[in-house]
Amino acid sequence: MKKLIAILTFAAVLTSSAAFAFDPFDGATIDNKKVMESFNKEFVGAADVSWYHTADKYVAKFTMKSSKVTAHFDKEGNLLATSRYITDTELPLNVITRMMKKYPDQKIHSIVEYDSQGSTTYVITLESDTHWTILKAESNGNLTRMKKLEKA
């Protein structure tokens, strides 16, 4: 129980510090023309756009075809990475089959797809009656267990 409280406290501190590290903008535009041009070219049809920034990075959170998407840009307008929540039907077949063989007693709670520099990885949270398992999956089907958390 103490371990779970420590983990949750650490996550809360990390989340709150991340919230203060970014400066949110009101509206769907920012003052960096290169970033806006790149965003509008890459994500035609994006809706509900919110912008955040640090000294050297711009982050857009938006909806695209009913998916929540996050895109990271540098100051020059280069797209660095994207992430989005997906469903199990959107996972590559080799990932889902290996995962089901290795963790048959767990159900999928959430999946986040990360794309950076042409490489796609997935962070999958599985749930059983007693614990949570967080996996990293590569497009080729390789699975790595990142964490296993006991339920309280």
From TrEMBL:
Domain spans labelled Putative beta-lactamase-inhibitor-like PepSY-like: 57-143
Checking Pfam families in the record gives: PepSY_like
- Would you indicate the residue range of the signal peptide? 1-21
Q: Which InterPro entries match?
A: PepSY-like
Q: Which key words are in the record?
A: Signal
Tell me if Transmembrane helix is a UniProt keyword of this record. Answer: no
Q: Does the keyword Oxidoreductase apply?
A: no
> SUPFAM superfamilies from the xrefs?
BT0923-like
Q: What is this protein called?
A: PepSY-like domain-containing protein
